[in-house]
């Protein structure tokens, strides 16, 4: 089909890309080999190199294998943004397992549903969330639980102060001694072999399950392959065409359990030997500014509410924020005033993009340094095709300017919904992903979201489905 958007690509962005023929976790091995001493994570001033991260991922994968985890088993990862999330996610993949990410804000009912639906028998959980897991564990397939304290990768002095002043009050101090098949992460890592047993992992093997309301509001898991995730990370790198290997620092404040943070922060950083500046609590705006001033981040993927908080911070004049070079905003529409003010404060380029969990997630963005059209989601990324179809049949392609449903094709589009063939058949038709979003396309290929087919509220970048609210109300 004709792709009018290609003429709006910046000169440095190719129309089509080559994707490494290897599983996602192999990117980390490759970068650890080429840039062993480059910084991989920055967490409350403590840094970890790519050599160290890769060794920890190896040990965690080996520990999972010792616990009986085999290829295709699901491993739940239930932590805030911290080094343990990266270790857990990449370690699960290296063991041949499927990572299932959990929202740290989940209530017990949501944790229980996701464990039951995914069939995860092993979970890595942050100690402050462990009581929730204890509450629902008997109703789930969980066989073994690995507990990690947020402080484990703190700098020594911060760890000491946290232990004395905050650990108990914030719920991080937990006693697991009487619980069967429950382990501390650090104990397992000490006992595990340095390397896992090799597993034959193919690009088309499932890498992770991401839970989403999709187009109906019923929570289900988008099944993303290694190839899906690899493709979206490579596309992201191409779109940010001035990326410099082993020199970028990515503000990692959006949650890593979410597809957007997973790709644009974690997977992109690892692909390019960048440093993840891990922010466990994005609402701590003073802490965010201190981190920016000290570590001079260059990339800042975020959601509009985050940029609003940034713009409105009273003491912004005390901090140097000019290191930030490029930002892609997702998850909700980006208001013009927010975009303009942010760019004035930082000198960075902030552009709006679009994606959904079913597409790993990014499919569109405005050119970062090119023709940025405010109020649009920009143009489809390399190797991504999008069109507008009629709402009645979903088969008739509409001309530019007409409003219909946005549908997408590309190597980042999911395999399907986990164990939900009927839902998959609704979302994936004839090789196209039906997004449920109402949009239109300009003559030269810029897309604009005008409404939502799905009945959904967005707050702070999170999807809130009325059905979820009603389920709780009906209990009273």
How does this model look, in words?
With 476 residues, this protein is α/β, with parallel strands linked by helices. It has helices at residues 26-34, 50-66, 83-94, 108-118, 130-136, 156-165, 185-191, 226-239, 259-271, 285-295, 304-312, 336-346, 421-427, 466-473, and strands at residues 39-43, 46-49, 74-78, 98-101, 122-126, 144-148, 182-184, 206-212, 220-225, 249-252, 275-278, 326-329, 349-355, 362-365, 379-380, 385-389, 404-409, 416-417, 428-429, 432-441, 447-452, 457-459, 462-464. Strands 7-6-5-3-4-8-9-18 form an 8-stranded mixed sheet, sandwiched between helices. Helix 2 packs across helix 3. The longest helix is centred in the N-terminal third of the chain and has 17 residues, at 50-66. It is globular. The termini are far apart.
Task: Provide keyphrases for this structure.
globular; alpha/beta; 5-stranded antiparallel beta sheet; 23 strands; 8-stranded mixed beta sheet
Proportion of helical residues: 25-40%
Number of helices: 14
Largest sheet: 8 strands, mixed
Ranges where pLDDT stays below 50 over 5 or more residues in a row are: none
Query: Strand share of the residues?
Result: 15-25%
Radius of gyration: 22 Å
Which strand order do you get reading across the main beta sheet?
A: 7-6-5-3-4-8-9-18
Mean pLDDT score, rounded? Answer: 94
What is the first-to-last residue Cα distance?
Answer: 53 Å
Shape: globular
Structural class: alpha/beta
What is the strand tally?
A: 23
